[in-house]
Amino acid sequence: LFTASKMGVFDLLQKSPGLDAEQVAAEIKASVKGTQCLLEALVSLGLLTPSDQCHHQKPVYKNSTLAAQFLGSDSPFSLHSYILHTDNVVWPLFSHLENAVRDGTNQHEQAFGKKAQDLFQDTYYDSQALKLRFMNAMHSIAKVTGKAVATAFDLSTYKTACDLGGCTGAIAHELTKANPQMSVTVFDLPAVIEMRDRFQPQHLDKDHRVSFMAGDFFKDDLPKADLYVLARILHDWADDKVEILLSKIAEVCKPGCALLIAETMLEGPTPHSALQSLNMLVQTEGTERTHRRYTKLLKKHGFGHTRVVYTMNFLDALLAVK
């Protein structure tokens, strides 16, 4: 999957479906033997569809429905950027899984020769190119999961929302689409906010219900809102950091305000949920948690009436009320 994405196989077959292995090899500048092996492997994964192999004819290939929807770089729900990020960053970390299991720590020093003192400012954002690549990756996941998160609960009673660590605003836009009464402030690091214009959907240019504010949610005052959103944020941090963030949210929350958490819940019905904890182990100081663990953490900070929706997407949704 990583190799085919990096070499442009899915983009090629999106533009020119029905090529045989020799034609694909010529376009991606690879050997025919290697290309044939790669194409057959992609067929076995359900990512490519071959033609009926008639006698004296070479099989030709096209993207499967799944690949057409998610793997072309120009597809509306493309995960192309996330796959390249996973190949370049996550896979080198995951190759040190044994170390991570033995030590219980992330593997940035082993994989990249650099400690992650502040993961997102020192490691992911140490250059403009890396920052943009990471934002593209997070944007692609948010596009795929945003609608499921935004529509998991009836949020019609909330007029203002703050998406903490909301990156490009993809989930914020989904929230305003699902809730016409709502305006959303995306609160993220200055380095992220500076790049936001590259990701704003053109048809929403005149939608002023999504705004952006620069800041560090561990250090700075949080914007006031009726609803706070944490999407793929808490799994990056150990419990002590999570407690700090929840206490800051609780301080600005009035009774009746709510917190919407979007994460992979460990007791969920999707088979990949447990693997996500290993994913977090090699990458961060955090972990995925169960619904019950989140409920316990939230209760300490005055949040109750906790409900969870298993969306069957990458992210599940949990709503708690102050």
TrEMBL record:
Keywords: Melatonin biosynthesis, Methyltransferase, S-adenosyl-L-methionine, Transferase. Residues 1-72 form the O-methyltransferase dimerisation domain. Homodimer. The keyword S-adenosyl-L-methionine applies. It comes from Periophthalmus magnuspinnatus. The keyword rRNA-binding does not apply. Residues 94-303 form the O-methyltransferase C-terminal domain. Its EC number is 2.1.1.4. Gene3D superfamilies: Vaccinia Virus protein VP39 (3.40.50.150), Winged helix-like DNA-binding domain superfamily/Winged helix DNA-binding domain (1.10.10.10). This is Acetylserotonin O-methyltransferase. Catalyzes the transfer of a methyl group onto N-acetylserotonin, producing melatonin (N-acetyl-5-methoxytryptamine). One of its GO terms (biological process) is methylation. GO terms for molecular function: acetylserotonin O-methyltransferase activity; protein dimerization activity. Pathway: Aromatic compound metabolism; melatonin biosynthesis; melatonin from serotonin: step 1/2. The active site is at residue 235.
